[in-house]
Design a protein that fits this description.
heterodimer, A: 305 residues, mainly alpha, MetI-like fold, 2 domains, two-stranded antiparallel ribbon, B: 257 residues, alpha/beta, four-stranded antiparallel beta sheet, 10 helices, 10 strands, 26% strand, globular
Amino acid sequence: MNSNTNISPETMFTETDIGRRNRFVENIFKAFFFLMTCLMILPLLLIIGYLFYKALPVLSLDFLFTNPKDNMRAGGVWAPFLGTIYLVVVSLLVAAPIGVFAAVYLSEYARDNWFTRIVNLAVVNLAGVPSIVHALFGVGAFVLFARLGESILAASLTLAIMTLPVIIASTTEALKAVPMSFREACWNMGATRWQTIRRIVLPNSISGILTGVILQVSRAAGETAPIMFTGAVFFKPIVEGNPFAYNITEQCMALSLHLYTISTQVPDVIEGIPYGTAIVLVGSVLLVNAAAIVLRIYLRTRKKW
Amino acid sequence: METNNRSIETQNLSLWYGDFQALIDVSVNVPAGKITSLIGPSGCGKTTLLRCFNRVNERYGNVTTKGEIKILGKNIYDPDVSLLELRKTVGMVFQRPNPLPISVYDNILFGLRIHSPFGSLTRAKSDEIVEEALTSVFLWDDLKDKLKTRATSLQLEQQQKLCIARLLPLKPQIILMDEPCSALDAKGTLAVEELMSVLAGTYTFLIVTHNMAQARRVSSECIYMFLGELIEHRETQALFETPEHPKTADYVQMRYG
C-alpha cells in the first residue's frame, strides 16, 4: 500500500503548490501567445481604418470610373485601376499554367536527380530575387531583346516571372497534401501517372492550387518596381467605362505606380485622392483574397477522406 | 503445361534501394491457386519482394533489380512486357485500406475504365460488373443501396473488402496483400481471411503478415524471410511445427528479438 497514509479521500485531488504554479505559468503563456495573435491583425485593421477615414471625402463609384484630371490633382482612378487589372490578369494567364504544370511535373513525374535538384534550387532562389532585379531582367529580356517595347505584355511577363516560383511552390504543397496511398491504389491497378493525376490527384488538390494562384493576385497588383520600366506610365487617360480600353501592346497606368506618383511627384493633390487610390488597391486585393477563401471552402466541402 | 501450377517464380532476385541491398538472391516458387504467406521481422524485405511482382517498386525512386522474375511463366523484365497489363494481372491490397475518394461504384469500375476505350462500358454492363464484384466479396447486400456513397466514408472492413473487389473486374490472376488486416479489428480480420479462403483457387494469394496466427490460419504455404534473404519456404504447418532452419525456429517460437 501507499506509505503516504495521511492522504485522505477528501483532499487527494486538491491542487498543490506546484500545480498552482504550473497553472499560473500556463495562463501567462496562453495570454502571451494570444496577444501576439492580436498584434498581427491590429496593423491591418488600423491601416484599413485610417485609409478609409482619410479617403471618405473622395470615395464614390465615380472615383472608380473617371480618369485622373487636372494633371492628376483631381478626378478618379479609372485608368490605373483598369491597368492593374490588365497586368494582373495577363501575368496570371501566363504564370498560372506554366507554374501549375511545372509543379505537376516536379512532384508527380520527376525523380530525384541532378536536373530536378537544379530546378528546385532555381525555384527557391527565383523567389528570393528582389523585384527591382526582376524589373531590370524584364527590360532586358522582354522590352529590348524580345522587342515587345514598354507594354502591358512586357510588364505582365515580368510580373509572371516574379510570381512563377511562388505558384510552383504553392502548387507543389497542394499536390503533396493528396495522400500517397491514393496514388499507390491507382498505380497498382495499372493506371498511368497521367490517369492518376487527372482522375485522383488534381480533383483533390484543385482547391489548394487555385488558392495559391489567386493569392498571387495581391502580389502582382501591389508591385511597382517590375512594371515601372517595362510598361507602366505616369499618365495615360483612356476611354472611361470601357473595360477593353487598353491594348496589351501599349503602355498602361497602374494603381501602385499611380499611388507613388501622386503622393510624391505631384504637388497640391486633393488630400483624399492618394488615400482613395490606396483603398481601391487594398480593397480589390482583399476582395480577390476573400473570393479565394470562399472558393476553397466550397471545394473543400466536396472532398472528404 | 508446367506453368499451370506456377504463378510466381524468382531466380536469384536481388534488389537495391540506392546502395542498400534489400533483397539478397531470393529464389522462390509460389504455387498457383493457393494462399502463401510471407512472414519475417520488420524491414526484412517482405513488402519489397511483394512490390517486385508487379514492378511497382520502380515507381518509388532509385531501385535496381537483378535476377529473374517469372509471372505465370513469363519473364516480367522482357522488353515486350507492358507494366500496365502486368499490374492488371497482379493486383495489390494494402495495409491501410485505400479506396479512392470517389463513390463505391466508381471505385469498382476505376481499373476497368482506365483500361477500356472511352465510352465502351455501357451503363448496364457497368451495373452488372459492380454487382458481380461486390457479391464476390460479400459486400453487395451491405452496399447495394450505398453505391453512390463516397468509399472513404465506409467502415474500415468494408473499405478493405472494396479494395479487393475493385481488383476483380480486371480479372487478375494473382493478388498480393501487404498486411491486409493490420488496420482492422478482430471481426474485420476474420471476414477478410474468410474472403481469401473463398477466393483462393480462383486467384493466387501472396500475403505479407506480421501475425503468425494469421499465417497459420489462412495459408497453405509459408515463406520466412530475414534481412533480405529467403530462409525457409515450406508448407505452413511444417514450417511452424518442424522448422528446418534455426532462424525460422527462433522466429516462429517467438525467440526472435
